[in-house]
Amino acid sequence: MDDLFPPFAPDPNEPRPRRFKPVPFRMIAPNMITLMALCLGLTAIRLAFEGKFEPAVIAVVVAGVLDGIDGRVARLLKGTSRFGAELDSLADFVNFGCAPALILYGFVLFHLKSMGWIVALIFAIAMALRLARFNAMLDDPNRPEWKKDFFVGMPAPAGALTAMLPLYLHFLGFGLESWAAPAVLIYVLAIALLVVSTVPTYSGKTMGKRVPRSLVLPIFLFGVAAFGLLISYPFEALVAVSGGYLLTIPVVAAQYRRRLKAEQAAVAGERPAAGLPAGSE
């Protein structure tokens, strides 16, 4: 019976196979930024439970800044991956779906009891649906190049930051008591509808690939001034940015329609030429 199951004796000269390949740091760095943003989103939820709404809002804003950085760092380092894209979407749902919904509910929507909670749920679920649609559109090979300048619907960070506009106003002295809860409910519901809508909004992903030399110093000065305003007057700046962004949506939608009509006209003009028989010109 011992001969049926002889002991296994590996060849001592055979090299041990490497179980895992080393991962380049350029693949890890963008994901670390995403995880830091996720930590801020979870911390914002905790702060909201403790009634510390001002630092909670700041945590979500900083998470939005990191969300805008991680993708650009990945493209700069050539460290993009499917894992990073999926991790970014999951982090965005927590940072810009769950955290703002819970902050808004704990701040003012709780006055409306079940109705306020339903709107908070709608906002969070709308953000999840928006992110799922965004991931599905990334795999569309037939998407025209010019459409990369536009998002379909309001992007997740913009939806979260504009949804918290009532909190910015409250921090500036515009007291929002229980009487303002219905107005906040309608506003948050409108933002949720914009998030899942097909209204085109500006992307900005193709902006800044090439900057004219004459604009380098003005851009530096503008960036320093904007950073100084954000640090010195954070909530005034957030009110201005949120209001300005909402006002640009109709302008961007009109620009999108013009470019879409131009593309359709170009395609319609090519079809008759493509259908002509040889030698008919």
TrEMBL record:
InterPro entries: CDP-alcohol_PTase-I, CDP-OH_P_trans, CDP-OH_P_trans_C, CDP-OH_PTrfase_TM_dom, CDP_ALCOHOL_P_TRANSF_CS. It is a multi-pass membrane protein. Its main location: membrane. Keywords: Lipid biosynthesis, Lipid metabolism, Membrane, Phospholipid biosynthesis, Phospholipid metabolism, Transferase, Transmembrane, Transmembrane helix. Pfam families: CDP-OH_P_tran_2, CDP-OH_P_transf. Residues 215-250 form the CDP-alcohol phosphatidyltransferase C-terminal domain. It is found in: Membrane. This is Phosphatidylcholine/phosphatidylserine synthase. The lineage of its organism: Bacteria, Pseudomonadati, Pseudomonadota, Alphaproteobacteria, Hyphomicrobiales.
